[in-house]
């Protein structure tokens, strides 16, 4: 589904010929880590409040 979505939005070079499942898992991992780093301050604030 992810490959189809990327292809639909024209986000894959070479029409997705180099897009493999392992690469997909790696991309998802990078996205999650990037997203968590964006909200790291919020997470730390919640942790601080919970420990008070």
From TrEMBL:
Gene Ontology, cellular component aspect: nucleus
Keyword vocabulary terms for this entry: Metal-binding, Nucleus, Zinc, Zinc-finger
Principal localisation: nucleus
InterPro entries registered for this protein in UniProt: ZnF_BED_domain_contain (IPR052035)
GO MF terms held by the record: zinc ion binding
The keyword Metal-binding is assigned to this record: yes
Cell location: Nucleus
Protein name as it appears in the record: Uncharacterized protein
Organism name: Gossypium armourianum
């Amino acid at each position: 589904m992810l490959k189809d979505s990327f292809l639909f939005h024209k986000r894959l070079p070479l029409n997705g010929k180099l897009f493999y499942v392992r690469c997909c898992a790696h991309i998802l991992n990078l996205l999650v880590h990037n997203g968590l780093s964006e909200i790291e301050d919020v997470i730390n604030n919640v942790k601080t409040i919970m420990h008070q």
